[in-house]
């Protein structure tokens, strides 16, 4: 259930941050919205679009994890809006037993592992017996 709460909170915070009206007298219209659930099987879906171009959607369903007695929640969703300078921002995500996994062109990317370090890591993985030499 934590993945669900985290993903909903993230989507709502992002939408609220971008949707904040310039003046408090002008509300932002919701052009469309839909909600389905929670259903008896634990699944749900929701989406909305606002007059200032914010779009968000999410769906979730229970998922059995290996031999666990309980199921976890598998969530997929996305949201998009334009930044203050007009740059389109789009983020999609999944949240499940592996945690929250966002994807978007605006997110930072880790640098590549240098080839020498990659070879060293491969050698270490191929020679586990070397780990016990100093014990």
From TrEMBL:
Q: Looking at the UniProt record for this protein, which Gene Ontology cellular component terms does it annotate, in alphabetical order?
A: chitin-based extracellular matrix
So where does this one cross the membrane?
A: none
Q: What is a GO molecular function of this protein?
A: structural constituent of chitin-based larval cuticle
Q: Does the record bear Nucleotide-binding in its keywords?
A: no
Domain of life of the source: Eukaryota
Keywords per UniProt: Cuticle, Signal
Signal peptide residue numbers: 1-19
- Which InterPro entries does UniProt cross-reference here? CHIT_BIND_RR_consensus (IPR031311), Cuticle_Struct_Prot (IPR050468), Insect_cuticle (IPR000618)
Query: What is the recorded name of this protein?
Result: Endocuticle structural glycoprotein SgAbd-1
């Amino acid at each position: 259930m934590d993945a669900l709460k985290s993903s909903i909170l993230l989507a709502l915070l992002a939408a609220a941050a971008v949707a904040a009206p310039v003046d408090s007298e002008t509300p932002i219209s919701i052009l469309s919205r839909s909600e389905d659930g929670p259903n008896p099987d634990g699944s749900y879906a929701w989406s909305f679009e606002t007059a200032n171009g914010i779009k968000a959607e999410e769906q979730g369903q229970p998922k059995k994890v290996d031999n666990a007695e309980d199921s976890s929640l598998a969530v997929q969703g996305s949201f998009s809006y334009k930044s203050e300078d007009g740059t389109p921002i789009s983020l999609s995500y999944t949240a499940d037993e592996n945690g929250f996994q966002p994807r978007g062109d605006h997110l930072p990317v880790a640098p590549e592992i240098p080839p020498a370090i990659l070879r060293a890591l491969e050698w270490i993985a191929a020679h586990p017996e070397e780990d016990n030499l100093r014990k």
